[in-house]
Please model this.
Amino acid sequence: MTLAAISTLLSQRIGLESTVISPRHIEKATVTRQAACQISDIKDYLKLIQTSEIEFAALVEEIVVPETWFFRDRKPFEYLKNYVRSQWLSRRNPSILRLLSMPCATGEEPYSIAITLLEAGLSPNRFIIDGIDISQRAIAKARQALYSKNSFRGDLSIYQQQYFQPTESGYQLTQSIQNLVNFYCNNIVNVSLSERKKYDIIFCRNLLIYLTDSACKQVLNTIDRLLLPSGLLFIGSSEFAKISPDRYTSICQPFTFAYQKRETTTFPDSLEGNKEKKKDYLNKGITIHSSDKSVDEKNLKQKRQEQNPPVSLSQSPVLDIDLPNIRKLANQGEIDEAITLCQTYLTHHPTSAAAYILLGELYQANRDEVASKKSFRKALYLEPNSESALIHLALIEQNQGNWASAEILQQRIQRLKQIDPR
Ligand SMILES: C[S@@+](CC[C@H](N)C(=O)[O-])C[C@H]1O[C@@H](n2cnc3c(N)ncnc32)[C@H](O)[C@@H]1O
Model:
């Protein structure tokens, strides 16, 4: 009973999902802390952690799992290196690249990021890396930067030779790399992190799986506030179902578990009160290609008015609308219009899995789960290895509480990644 109350307190304050951590683990941590405090009655210990922040933090130290290692999963770091080389450095005026590792545990992740950026050709004064974790012990270890063999999994000998000094007590990271990361001890759940700092890239890996739904939402909202538009988000390998396709697009590189934040506000958010935006958008116009000549949005509207009812648009043989423009239209909040154009596009390109995926996303934006599921299924039928369709479907199944179906889809995605581990 009291153990359950301790578990609830941990859920409320640090977002810990009690079903993910075994009750034995919580019990063991509590017994350890009771012994340290010389409190034999668990009820007295509960009273203590309810009132003492210091003791609650000490209990958290026993509960958290700061399991991490250098270049964990490898692919995210390879992608980061390519991204910096091919996209960031080729910008006309690349500013300072700001990255956040949250949670950073004992520092292996942010230090791997620092090494990756240097190897990508970014000089130390061109980037800033912050690391945040709730565990004071982990942050102290990160600042010490002395690591055992356990922090190196797989063949990392090249990095070991270049960036570490072997000592009697472990591998000491060189000071020049240590200087590149700022560490902060903070609770990501329930604490509003300063919004003065915005980031181009956030790593939030292997935390969401331990959190309750509401804590997960809080963390994702925090990420949303801290990440710049078009910024990159890296999550853990089993956390994709937590990411909303309304806000993030998968970069579709297997094993990177990377997403790009959509540039504009999400489809659903932009649905309301968008009349002014709509006018503004129509004034600007977008180019939609037709087989005879290019027609702008105004002409297209005219064409649609001439063709009454609007459904006749989808029967027009002259229109060859392209998907990026439909997406642009949707990002302006014109969801219904985008749906009509997408349907039109499909009458001319009935085997386009990409169009069915876009249509599914648009229905999703309109909160029409039945229609969106149908579209994603159609995409999957046309392209059985479409990772994007699988991810969307898995998310819907998960939202609907169809765990078995979600699990099967996740297994398909994993199998896909094993076949094509690019
Ligand atoms: C498994 S490690 C992940 C480290 C690294 N991101 C990785 O993927 O290798 C999880 C970390 O989350 C931290 N953590 C758990 N709850 C937290 C919270 N509410 N706020 C900040 N950090 C938290 C733990 O202290 C632990 O170090």
